[in-house]
Amino acid sequence: MPCGDFGVEGYKKFVFNEYLALNQLTADQLVELMTSVGFRVVRQERRRMELDIPEALQGRFASDDLLTNEIFLLLGK
């Protein structure tokens, strides 16, 4: 939904609610979970954001965890 549909404050609320709904599972954890239940990774592709990591987060979390925004997995049994 474009920002103009519900204003700046509505958009901020929408984005914050999306953040609260995140499962906080990292790409590495997802791959580990899938392989631990018997799948093998046939192919994977990760997409990253090209952003500077805020100083408050530097060193607290791995940069890959913070910047990966998509993972595509092809799994086999």
- Tell me the number of strands: 2
Shape: extended
Alpha carbon gap, first and last residue? 38 Å
Strand order of the largest sheet: 1-2
What's the order of the H and E elements?
Answer: HHEHE
Q: Which ranges are low-confidence, i.e. pLDDT below 50, for 5 or more consecutive residues?
A: none
Continuous helix count: 3
**Main beta sheet strand tally, sense and closure:** 2 strands, antiparallel
Content-based structural category: alpha+beta
Mean pLDDT rating: 89
Please indicate the percent range of residues in DSSP E strands (runs of 2 or more): 15-25%
Rg result: 16 Å
Please bin the fraction of helical residues: 25-40%
Structural features:
single chain; 77 residues; alpha+beta; two-stranded antiparallel ribbon; 2 strands; 39% helix; 23% strand
Short summary of the structure?
The protein is built from three helices and two strands, in the order H-H-E-H-E. With 77 residues, it is α+β, with helices and mostly antiparallel strands.
